[in-house]
Amino acid sequence: MDELYIHLRIREVIAETQDAFTYRLETIDGQPLAYQAGQFITFLIYLHGTEYRRSYSFSSTPGIDPYPSVTIREKQNGEISRHILHHWKAGDQVTALLPSGRFTLSGHTTSPRDIFLLGAGSGITPLFSLLKEILHNEPTAHIKLIYSNTSTERTIFHRHLQELVQQFPRQLHIIHLFSNDPDQIVRRLSNLSLEPLVQQQLRYQAADARFFVCGPPEYMRMILLTLTYMGFGEEQLHKENFVVNTAPQLARIGTPEDSSMKNVELHLRGGVHKLSIPGNHNILGEALAQGIAIPYSCKGGVCGSCTARCTTGKVWMALNEVLTDKEIEQGFVLTCTGYAISAEVVIEI
Question: Which residues of 232-245 are buried (b: 16+ CB within 10 A; e: fewer)?
Fold first, then answer.
């Protein structure tokens, strides 16, 4: 193993709900793990002789929680999450990639602003990390957490959230939506309920508001479309994708017709790798085939683990659910869905 990978030990396993557990971690060498609130970590899991990679968001917050933690809910028909919940225990050692992810705060301000956190189900995990970061480091912000679940019993961090409301009553307002509660007037978030809710909760300038969204794809799509229609800009909207299968979509999009060889130079951890890659082969796949270990997880343009920066030439991405237009302008690319379209390409990882 090289510095691309880290080795962790599970300190403690905590039940959050009947099917969701928090895993507190520590590094084997005792050194602090560098990560940001809202980021995720990708575990390498070996099952039936096959390596799987699964990314899970941190529910802990650096500088506030003593140990990095991830919270994992068993996914329906999810063999890997079921394996983790049934087999990982305190004292076990696990291997992971270095933390990554762009679902983070760009910085703090002393000016008052509204921050909306919108989550459904296990989508609370990175939002919980961000919530603690904002509460402790940006006291002038007013935070609205709109959290959708089926019931109180299935609400991850329900008790912890109540404690935060008591600790930060002037900064935090939580709206719980329970789809199984017949007494609630609004049980599910929709475009019809979201727009007046946001307008009602805004305290400060709309242009200063920030929105962080995490949940099922349809849920996030509805929220982002509604907020865009309301006039909020791309730089105000942040989403975190829990990996979904994009293979059918990628198959429909297809690959470039140009199969001519491209000279691709990868700058990785102080070294330089020179590859010849056909224009219709993605960069990640060719790098792995040639024995170069670069970060990745979903291979579908969703998680962002493979994000790199193209400093020379051009790269076309078949699918991108992570990078913003501004980041693309700055040269950021996803190697898993990225194809070299220039004769000479230089990529920094």
Answer: beeebbbbbbbbee
* Closest alpha carbon to 283 in 341, 323, 331, 339: 339
Beta partners for residue 6, in sequence order? 96
Total domains, the chain: 3
**How many Å separate Cα 267 from the centre of its chain?**
25
Number of neighbours of residue 293 by Cβ within 10 angstroms: 14
Instruction: State the Cα–Cα distance between residues 136 and 51, nearest whole angstrom.
Output: 39
Do 280 and 254 contact (CB within 8 A), yes or no?
no
Is position 106 within any domain? no
* Residue 255 sits in the same domain as residue 316: yes
The CATH number of the domain holding residue 289 is: 3.10.20.30
- Confirm whether 73 is domain-assigned: yes
Tokens matching residue 200: 């009602």
Out of 97, 129, 160, a domain closes at 97
Look at residues 240, 320, 245 and name the one whose alpha carbon lies nearest to residue 56. Answer: 240
Q: How far is CA 321 from CA 138, 154, 238, 240, in A?
A: 29, 28, 11, 9
pLDDT in tens, 70-119: 999 998 878 999 999 999 999 999 999 999 999 999 889 999 999 999 99
Residues 220 and 177 placed together within one structural domain of the fold: yes
CATH number for 70: 2.40.30.10
* Rounded CA separation 42/325 (Å): 25
Separation CA 126–CA 131 (nearest Å): 9
Residue 2's pLDDT is 53
Indicate whether 325 pLDDT > 50: yes
Residue 73 CB neighbour total at 10 angstroms: 22
Segment (H or E) for 225: helix 217-229
| 204 has pLDDT over 50 | yes
With a pLDDT cut of 70, the percent of the chain lying above it is 99
Using the Cα atoms of residue 291, residue 296, residue 300 and residue 301 in order, give the sign of their dihedral: negative
My answer on whether 92 and 123 are in the same domain is no
Tell me the residue range of the domain where 66 lies.
5-97
